[in-house]
Amino acid sequence: MATSVGWAQDLWPSVTKEMKPWTRWWWLGSAVDKPNLSREIKLLDEAGFGGVEVTPIYGAKGYEDRYIPFLSDKWLDMLAFTIDQAKSHQMGVDINLGTGWPFGGPQIDEQHAATKLFLDEIELKMGQPISFPLGVSDTKQSFSKLQALRAYKSNGEEINLDSYMHNQSGSWTAPENVRVIALFSGRTRQKVKRAAPGGEGFTLDHLGKDPVQRYFNHFQKAFQGKDLQLRAFFNDSYEVYGANWTDQFLEEFEKRKEYKLQAYLLDFAGKGNDKEREKRVKSDYREVVNAILRDNFLIPFTSFSNQHGALSKNQAHGSPGNLIDLYASTDIAECETFGSSFFAIPDLRRDSTDVRNVDPDPMMFKFASSATHTTGKKYTSSETFTWLTEHFKTSLAQAKPEVEQLFLAGVNHVFYHGTTYSPEDVPYPGWLFYASVNFTTNNSFWPHLPGLNNYITRVQSILQTTQADNELLIYWPIYDVWHDTKAPFKTLSVHHVDDWLHPTEFYKQSMSLQRLGYSFDFVTDAILAKSTVHDKLVVTAENARPYKVIYIPSTQYFSEETLANLLTLARNGATLIFETLPKDVSGLANLESRRKKLNDLLATLHFDGDEENQYTAYGKGKVYLTNDVYSALETEQLYAERLARTGLKFNRRVTEKGTYYYLVNHTDKTIDQFVRLNSEAAHYTLLDPQTGDIFNLPIEKSDIRLQIPAGYAWVVYASNTDKVDPDYHYINQPQEEKVFVHPWKVSFLHGGPQLPKARTLNTLSYWTTWGDAVADKFSGMAAYETSFTIENKSDKGYQLHLGTVGESAQVWVNGKDAGIVWAHPFTLEIGKLLQNGKNDIRIEVANLMANRVRDLDKRKVSWRNYHEINFVNIDYNDFDASQWKLMDSGLKGPVRLFSY
User: Fold this and answer.
1) Contact of 412 with 366, CB cutoff 8 Å
2) pLDDT value, residue 353
């Protein structure tokens, strides 16, 4: 895979800073200074980054005299300087609205800190008293409040003791054997994780209106009178451990659900005998948590951001609520990749000892992109490459298919995780963050990083200037997720999809439809409530692209209001497909009246309960009831993309002028087939995102030939108006030109700790196989050079295959740059650079940092010395590379030249 220097600009969109990848930029101890800020921003710009996301965190030991307190005048001056420097390089700046994560800090006292509930149980014998004031069982609590007090007789009869709650003395005596349940609010006592100097303190109560305002007021005061010119404020994933309450929760609950939660304390505590009622009470609780998290935190966060001329950007995963609605509550929804995936791409390294036991699920990314698409917003971003592999062992080739999974799921703006600010005077390997791929200037692959960055920029330029062309809306049955008898609080995190996502019919049907070749977004009750119908298409928001069908997978619990909204859409012309009809309403509030409404609405469909597959006209629209969604879609002349049968993955996008197909081959072989796309057109254009080249694709009987190697990607543009020259030249019957017969000279260009001596090789090999102790510990770049003779025929193309590369390379032919080769299949076209007769070739190969860090640890050099978590390995144990095997480094080849 090559990245050429030039860009074919006639069809590629003009590049903006948002089209480039950005990186999370950790400021360790906020120990920044203007010369180093200026230097690093210049280097980031040259590497192809479009912006930075500043996140202050803990610092490196020994540099405390450089620390700058968060939000101090000096810190704000450094931020302003950063913004000015970024602007001079046409880059942007986002900041974390806090330090570390989650939100919190010195402005959050115990009263406004993250809050949890305690359900204390006391068994009393007849005649046994309890004394007041009643204290919470957790003796560490220094700020708690008794919120409800109930006693229960053996037959389940309740005795309301709330009138005793505020007693500062006295007692109550049990009239018979009872179980007393006391509901207390207390504090989690969680502090901000990885806080920067000046940012230390309690985690915020995200569910409380007053605590949230207190938090934002702190920044309002700090930013007063300053024109920040930030692009966005950022909130990290919801890792507010155990924060399941706010002091006003009971009032909020009663206002929203019209009954008192404390009246069902036995069910809420999981101590009752009616498990169905327990599920319903807990579902109502979870629904209220979701609502107040949105209303009290996320909407005010967006309002605060917009008041300061910035966008709000939020990671909803991990939240205790409807993730899609929570993603949609801010300007930019941001998902996260965590861990590494298996890909069948030949020779793509995946060492089991270097990956976490977490496989990212691309379907999870669609929760964020669906929020963006259905609300008509522009960007879905991603925290990308978190713990992709063990430190210092991640190649650019490993990063490519991971980021492609994001693009395929609708993400269109990636943020690397990430880059650590590191002053020039800090010895190798510089300051580093403990959970990231180190996209730092000390990384050996840094000179080749533009290869990956340019690829991402080209793909994002298409994804950001088009709309997702997804036919289906798939309803997410959130009430089925909320109805269970587990602990009341329920967070939906990327690490627990095996629990809340994978077992569901929703997930299974979504996977099936995707494999068939359908494109879809997920939709929620709240989004459906705002949807309308135009020309039989479902419109979810003013700027959203309309959808053709709404699909409702099997669901047990359903909102009668949502059913009414769905049937209104059908009456106005929409097509609905139910896998099965909803069984019952959700929750406990007004249960019987809501249940009657649901059943009355279902009766209007007049379905025969014994029939498996049936449909009915409903107003101007249709409603299907079938477990064969595929046949129903085809009945509606809605066909899957046949290209899915090839094994290619795709993301289809549209503009007013045509349709773009982003196609990726993650299989183990070249896919070479004729395919008819659903978007038929007069002309098809190949935009190669790896190189920037543009070619016309010939048409044969409405089909086009796709020839995509394993690990490669194409963008195919279908248009009735735009046509380009020249035609793409397919590789038919390639012939190897056996030209590499001369020895290779290897010289080391830059890196350390020392430059190994140059040598000549008769056969290509890694420098780590030479038995050279200096080469074994070397991380950096070496040049492999030779010459060859060929008769260059103008009617032929010439493709260079580098074979096995450890880990990336830049190729020069006759002194001219042929491109960066940074991922599989490690090939590039060089025909235009060849000359008749003798040709010189130079392949500059960079390895990774691993071998040099291994040497540091073998020699027990102290290089990792940080406050708080210090520096851990992928299993969160103390990092030690001294026992690592050497990583293959250099060019093993064989280097081969093919004509075609």
Assistant:
1) no
2) 82
